[in-house]
Amino acid sequence: MKVISGIAALIILAASNLHAAPHCGEVDRPGGYGPYDYTNPDDKATKLPVVEAHHFGPDVEKLIRGSTGLLGADLNYTLMAFPNHHRALTAMGKLSIKEKIPKPRGARYSVDCYFDRAIRFRPRDSAVRVIYSNHLLKMGKSNEALEQLKEAINLQPENPAINYNLGLLYIQKKDYEQARTYAKKAYELGFPLPGLKNKLVEAGKWDD
Questions:
Q1: pLDDT in tens, 152-181
Q2: Where in the chain is CATH 1.25.40.10?
Q3: Is residue 78 within 8 Å of 52, Cβ to Cβ?
Q4: Gap between the Cα atoms of 37 and 82, Å rounded
Q5: pLDDT above 90: residue 41
Q6: Are 130 and 162 a contacting pair, CB within 8 Å?
Q7: For the domain 140-208, what is the CATH superfamily, name and number?
């Protein structure tokens, strides 16, 4: 019985370690190119041109054709080198929707994983949260999209565009009180588009 118990304990420990391992892979790349920070001016000036010249040209970004093979492979390389590459994350999300699969052909991970990796790499990059929120909305996941925008606004409470987008999402959920709160903040911060205000006016929930 002691031997069986010992084996059982080893199995449980192995399963626990497996579960604890990052499902979306480690972000660090020993011996690889990167990871570099898309928001870091030095990385953007010295490292990014190399990646974009070979793997993220206009045809890749527009999802016309890959540079070295499949579109998903070029986007994957870009996001392995620059995990928080905003435009590449947007393109990977669009490719997933275009191909109607969560893991585009040629990609190493699912779209959700690429966002997970970007967030782990640079937790304070609010743009990643906004891009992820937009993707989740397109996938019909409004609750998850809202959570990402909440994280973004916590990181940048004075960002007018994030306040505006959060207001729009609350309009969609018919939470007009919250929508009005973020709308007021967005316009106080100088956001130029009147769409959110117009929606609140139409709903009879705006007061000047």
A1: 999 999 999 999 999 999 999 999 999 999
A2: 140-208
A3: yes
A4: 6
A5: yes
A6: yes
A7: Tetratricopeptide repeat domain (1.25.40.10)
